Every structure is written in structure tokens, then in C-alpha cells.
Amino acid sequence: MRRQMSDMEAEKSINIRDGGEMAEKEELLHKNNHQRGGIRTLPFILANEFCDRFASSGFHANMISYLTQQLNMPLVPASNLLTAFAGTSSFTPLFGALIADSFAGRFWTIVVASFIYELGLIVITLSAILPHLRPLACSTQVNCREASSSQMWILYISLLLIAVGTGGIRPCVVTFSADQFDMTKRGVASRKWNLFNWYSFCMGLASLSALTIVVYIQDHMGWGWGLGIPTIAMLLSIIVFVLGSPLYKTVKRHGSPMVRLAQVVVAAVKKRYEALPQDHKLLYQNWELDAAISLEGKLLHSDQFKCLDKAAIVTEEGRDPNAAPDLWKLATVHRVEELKSIIRMLPIWASGILLIAASSSHNFVILQARTMDRHLVHTLQIPPASMSIFTVLTLMVGLVLYERLFVPFIRRFTKNPSGITSLQRMGVGFVVSIIATLVSAWVEIKRKKVAAKYQLLDIPSATIPISVFWLVPQYCLHGVAEVFMVVGHLEFLYDQSPESMRSTATALYCITSAIGNYVGTIMVSLVHKYSGKERNWLPDRNLNRGRLECYFYLLSGIQLLNLIYFVICAWFYTYKSVEEISTLNNLQDLEQDKENISSVT
């Protein structure tokens, strides 16, 4: 008996020593992380993101002009190539998010992806500098010799590298910035500034700089400098980001969220013939297992999609309390509700696809601007791609007015701290987007009337005596639509997604752009193919002989149907229910304090 007691005491002392060593290691790691992060990391992260956005905006803004004027591509294939490229660039963030969340971490994902992006920019810059990598110049834009297959393959390789690099950068930068700060409700409330406001302001400033400086250089100094400057800016962003690495806070990864969703599906399928208990409290719950993925609160059981609840049924095989659960056979209620939250979000998420598809007409608006009088003064012209400045300016000013004026005013009537819900915000954005597309059609009718008056319909390179500022209202309306729809869409996905899957929600938002761009490509191709040969809506060369206004009317009708679909989905949507754990933590702290007082006494 004494021997057994001595063995138990020895084992207990070993466990205490091991536990103490583990606690010391965790405390050292926590102390090291506590010393990192904070506001001192912002100059490095925001400088990196500023240069990155400057490079990407300068590259994307005027590419339609590069393809049609430097590579002599027809209008519709060039527009489809850019739309497909934008779609691919918006789809790759899903893979980037999975890689970062599963094993690589956000820091190394950003660094490696940035190098891949830089390599793509170098390739396309060389193609713009070296004459044998592009076809002969064609000033008339009629019967031009198009780029050869080898020249086009160089373009494809560069675009592919840029798309892959974008996939690693886009889903990680925002969340990596948030990792450096205390993003709990108490931490956010203690700061007098908002991280995401600073982030959005820097992104807007970078886009404005690119749309003014880079686009002007591309149109007046050549594409060698026009693409070389974004390449240099991207290289600087990598250097600045790596220099700040000793200051960054690291966040421990807790496995891929996609794997957890797959585990719930597999467990539900394996137990599809099991009967659900009458009381949902009998379903499997493990607070310790879910602690790392439910820091803000645990998702409560919902009555929707009950077939998934079967993943949380405890069978005879899983009743051993000492055995670790096989997550491919048994899932917790919290993990089941994670999957339910994603499924509930999908119909609302899908409503943004057609809005992105409608924005594929942006390339045609640039070509409209190129045919119009772009003089600010007698010697200064606005580059066509720089017209997007008005959308960015409207977005930046609109966000400030929305936060400072609209929300306090509307809050008096709705009693909602946010003014209106994210779904209501999206609905307003849909309506404004429809109005913007209708205005685009009316401006196109006006532009062609002036061209016909001066007999310029058959001269595609001629400047029509109508001011390019006729396009400003539609650009501003698109900026207002983004204030409501785009920001509201991202806000909805972030708020309604499970807290452990918010990086994935960012990738999901990017996939909306991907599918929307692919749909836009299909729409442009079908319209070009079936709208006739004599009066084609989207002609290859001469936009003056096209019927672009009909295409805008078609987009308006599609967006109207999409608005009706969205209203129906929003009407039946059920918000997720979360059990806050702050009160529980406070009670646990109180009990701990009582124990400490008792031990001291």
C-alpha cells in the first residue's frame, strides 16, 4: 500500500514538473508574442500593402489599352482575356487561404506569393520593352497584325504568375494586419482609431496614385516605364514587409477550416440512418476541443439542416470518455453549426456574382473615354483609364459620409447601432448599381449622336467633340454602389461567418469576383456572337458602329432580376446565434480570485 502511494506521489510530482515546464514554455511564448505586434508594425504592413495595391492598380487599370494597341488584339477577345484573368485572380485566394491556415502561415504565404507576383510583372515588363516580344505598331487600328502565338504565350505566363501571386496576398494581408492587435470587443473599444479605416484609406490612396501617375506614364512615356514602375513598387513592398518581420506577432494555426467542414459532412453521411435525439442537448459537445476556434463565443444549435445534426450523434462507439473523438465520425455541435452558417450564407453570397458580371463592361467604358474629348486644359488630357479616379474618390468620400452622417441620422429611426443591417446596405447598393448602368446607356446614346452629327462614326481613331466628363456621373454612381453593396457584402460575410473561418470568408468574397468575371466573359461572348454581324452590339474594332447601349440595357434587366432574387433570399435569411462566453470567463476569474484569497488566508 505504501509502495503504491509512493508511486502515485512520484507520478504526481513528475506530472507537476512536466506541467510546470509546459506552462513556463507557454508563458515564454505568450510573453514573446506580447512584446511583438502593435501599432509599430503598421508602417511596414501598410507600406507593403500601399506598394502592392499601387502596383496592381497600375497594372490592371489600363491593360485593355495595352492589349488592343500594343498587342493588336481585337476588342472582344481582349476584354474576355482580362475578365478571365480577373476571375482567376479572384479564385486563387481560396487556395492561398487554405495554404496559410493549414501549414504555411500568413507571413510566409504573403512573402512567397509576393515573389511570384513580382516575377509575373518582370515578364510582362520585358515583353513591353523588347521589340521582338510584341507585334509591329499599328496606328490606324485597322487590319492590324496581331501578336503571334509565342508572344501571346509570354502574356499568358505573366498573367498566370500574377494570378497565383494574388491568391496568396489578397486573403492574408487584412487578417495578418488584424493579428498584430487585440481584436476582441474590449480591445477594439479601447482604441480611438479603426484599423480597417486606415487600411481602406491606404488602399484608396494607392489606387488614386496609380490611376493618375502610372496611367499617365503609360499613355505618354511608353509601356516600358508604365509597367516598370509597378514592378519596382512591388519589389519595394516585399523589401519593406520582410524588414518588419522581427516585429510581427505570430498566431498559432488550428488546422484548415475546410477539413473541419469535410469532417462534418463525412460524419453526417456515415450516420445518415441514425435517429436524432428528441433533445438537442444530447448531441455531442466538447468545449475544450472547440476552445481554440470559438474565442468570442460558441454557436448555438439551430433547427435548420437537421440532416447535418447526425454528425453530432454520440453512438456506442463514441461513448468512451477517455478516448479522443474521431472527428471523421463524430463532430461537435459548434462545428456542425459552422457548416450550417456557411450554407445559410451561400444564397446571399451568390447575389453578388451578377453585380460583378455587370462590371465587366468597365473595359468598354475605357474605350468610350478614349474616343471623347479628354482635355482638362488646352495642353493637358486625362488618360482614359484614369477616369476610375472618380469611382475611387466617391468611394473614399462616401465611406466617410456614410460613417459620420448617414449612420447617426438613420440610427434615430432604426435604433440599430450600425444604422442599417448589412443586408439592407446591400439592397441599396443593388438599386444604385442599376441606376448607374442605365445612365451608362444614356451617355452612350448621346456620344453616338454627336459622332453622327460630325460624321465620325466610321473613323474609330477620331476624337468626338463631346467632353469625357459626361462619363463622370456613372463613375460616381458606381462608387456610391460600392459604398453600400461591396462593403456591405464583405461586412455580411465577415459578420455571419464562424469566427475561425473569417479568412475563408475573405476568400469567399474573392470567389464572388471570380465567378462574376467568368459569367461576364460568357455574357460578352454570347452577345458578340448572337447580336448580328451588321450592327453587332460589341464590335471588334469600331465602337461607334456598335450598339453598346443595348448591352447596358441588358445588364440593367439582369441586375433587376438579381435584385428580386436578393430580396427574396434576404427576407427568409436567419442570422446565426452565438452564446457569448465573456460572462463565463468573468465568473471563472472570480472563482479563481476566491481560491487565491483562500490560499493566502
From TrEMBL:
Keyword set, alphabetical order: Membrane, Transmembrane, Transmembrane helix
Pfam families: PTR2
InterPro entries per the UniProt record, alphabetical: MFS_trans_sf (IPR036259), POT_fam (IPR000109)
Any one GO cellular component localisation term in the record: membrane
Main location: membrane
Signal peptide: none
Residues that span the membrane, as ranges: 107-133, 153-176, 196-217, 223-248, 345-365, 385-402, 423-443, 508-531, 551-573
Entry similarity comment: Belongs to the major facilitator superfamily. Proton-dependent oligopeptide transporter (POT/PTR) (TC 2.A.17) family.
Listed PANTHER family: OLIGOPEPTIDE TRANSPORTER-RELATED (PTHR11654)
Protein name: Major facilitator superfamily (MFS) profile domain-containing protein
Species of origin: Phaseolus vulgaris
